[in-house]
Amino acid sequence: MIKLQLALSRKLMNITGLDIFKNTRRRDYVEARALLMFVFHKYLGMTKTAIAEYFVENGKPTTHCTVIHHLKNWDITVKFNPILSRNLNDVLGGTRYMTDGLKRQYIQDKVPLLTKENVDELYKKSLAMYEDVLTDMEANPVEKYSLEEFAN
Which long-range contacts (CB under 8 A, 24 or more apart) does 22-25 make? Predict the structure, then answer.
């Protein structure tokens, strides 16, 4: 997990051009840190205390209260700075560390932002993909076992 945290931190710093561990209260730094805290909490399942400790370990004094504040206000922060949504896409998208679970969560988070036309198109594509999976499963059935076989 530490590798993933470092990779995401570096990616965000490359995207924004900011050292997010620099001890400053400038808005762009604060918002970039909030984005990373959001990613750590939402997508990596880190506790607020663990997120604060990560920042402290990297030279930025932070408490879990600060993390709580940023997570609580994330929706407002991103509403007034839409560039953060783009940065979030850039940080999460295309990283080799994205597991299937993280990808599913990422997709679920984006669905509310889609237009009706986007949802219709996505529905048709996902239906076709699901049909492909069913066809493959029918063509290559998994052997079935009885419960008695597992008991022995």
Answer: 22/60, 23/59, 23/60, 23/61
